[in-house]
Amino acid sequence: MDSRDIVVTVNGIRHEATVKTRVTLADFLRHQLELTGTHLGCEHGVCGACTVLVDGRTARSCLMLAVQAHGHEIRTVEGIAPNAKELHPLQTAFQKHHGLQCGFCTPGMLTTLIEFLHDNPDPTEAEVRIAISGNLCRCTGYQGIVDAALDAAKTMRNST
Asked: What predicted TM-score, i.e. pTM, was given to this entire model?
């Protein structure tokens, strides 16, 4: 199998690696960089569990090849918090509003909502529901996730 050298910045850290051309970004993150917060569910881009931010925009890492990430900045769930002692307001809101249960969908929900709240800092409940409609959760019933997103949006607006 053919391999390529890539350079990516993941959560602010530059990585140089040799990857097989058929390795997905999800597998590269999980197996080569050992960032296992990005989850693999359906491996068809449907469930949203593998969602990461590529140059600030959401991408399904199960559908993207690692070689396609060459030269780009990737942000995974491990890179959301501003530092090791402080959570992102969205993570805090997920805790406060019970926006997670088993946690499997949480990384994809968080990265999806990071992009969404950046683009729409004052969303309605309906807009949040549309934003997360591509991420499947089998545990929460979504209400805690929606409440967390709205609360985080308010917190983030008030901190600027």
From this structure: 0.95
